[in-house]
Amino acid sequence: MRILHTSDWHLGRQFHHVSLLEDQRHVLEQIVAIVRERAVEVVLVAGDIYDRSVPPAEAVQLLDEVVHRLSAECGVALILIAGNHDGAERLGFGARQLARAGVHIRGPLEPEPEPVILQDAHGPVAFYPLPYAEPATVRSELGLEVQGHEQAMRALTARIRAHNGDSRRSVLIAHCFVDGFAACESERPLSIGGVETVPADCLEGFDYVALGHLHGPQARGAKHLRYSGSILKYSFSEENQRKSVTLVDMNAQGACTIEEVALRPRRDLRVLEGALEDLLEQGRRDPAAQDYLLVRLQDRHAILDPMGKLRTVYPNVLHLERPALAQAGERRAPDRERLREGELPMFRDFFRQMSGEALDEAGEAAVAALLERLHRGEQS
After folding, report:
1. What's the number of domains the chain is made of?
2. Do both 367 and 352 map to the same domain?
């Protein structure tokens, strides 16, 4: 059986007040193409379908389009679970009717394990969708006395293993933070003031575990335990990640062969560092000038409207930092005489920024004379 594992779509997300909906549409079209071209039989989406519990209408419409293309046009089974960003009840609306069309959605936590059973040439494979649930939800909904994420996950997976037995091939789809894996800045914490991670041994006993929540594609130890990662870079801390989906080929014994298939972003997300003039020159010939950028300017002097200047060559600069200027600001303030000595150089820089040309000798002499008269007036 060929499985495609993806997660953390975060439909409707904004990044520095810029909508990423068209960027998401761009990569979701690639996922549909991969499903069609690689003869995928089932698609797993391991949570955080939306970016917030009440998604914008455009995000709901995009999900509807993608579900239709995967289910009706490609003819594959589709299994989605709620993550910590999703509104579980909203996501699960109409789930029983959609299941008849091969679209299996788990929003709220079910009182008993309910696998999706799919067949291949070797027999059944049981897919167990386990949506994100707070320990308090596990206590109240299932009546299990658990404290913290680890106890909750151990209790839930123990029930699933007992339900499945030892002989049937099985896949767990879960949304959690497994200990030992790498996090990013863009992931919302699962716990405030407590331990949010769960040990990997909580998830033993399955032929493949499709995980969501962490945005970097990764596996540790047992290769069957994997995060597919998010479909886009959602923070500048993810600059060096290569986003992908995971193809899983499961044989008759449940052994899995793994392949990461890269996704190509509509615009990449990068960090640039350097002096303003160097970056402006670089931007004029940069073939990827439309990328989303964080720029760290190394200039130590004051610059008039640096963001406006940068956006003439890099229109999608989203954030600007001045680390060198911040360091200079920590020094002792100069005295009045030193300020006077710097007035003419400051005006030269101001004139160049405003006019795009250097101040000529006549202009410099006139400004110097004016500054001298001002200083004499201060002393009189």
Report:
1. 3
2. yes
- Residue matched to tokens 């761009």: 26
* 377 shares a domain with 297: no
Q: What is the pLDDT of residues 295-333, one digit of tens each?
A: 999 998 888 899 999 999 999 999 999 987 766 554 444
Q: How far apart, in whole angstroms, are the C-alpha atoms of residue 171 and residue 256?
A: 11
Cα distance between residue 256 and residue 170, in whole Å: 11
Do 128 and 205 lie in one domain? The reply is yes
pTM of the entire predicted model = 0.85
Residue 222: give its domain's CATH number. 3.60.21.10
**Same domain for 119 and 141?**
yes
Structure-token pair, residue 205 = 């006993």
In the three-class reduction of DSSP (H, G, I as helix; E, B as strand; rest coil), residue 283 is classed as helix
Query: Which contiguous run of DSSP H or E holds residue 249?
Result: strand 244-250
Residue 190 φ then ψ, to 5°: -85, -15
Interatomic CA distance for residues 157 and 144, integer angstroms: 13
Which domain covers residue 299, as residue numbers? 268-331
> Which domain-ending residue is among 262, 294, 313?
262
DSSP string of 57-124, one letter each residue: HHHHHHHHHHHHIIIIIT--EEEEE--TTS-HHHHTTTHHHHHTTTEEEE-SPPSS--PEEEEETTEE
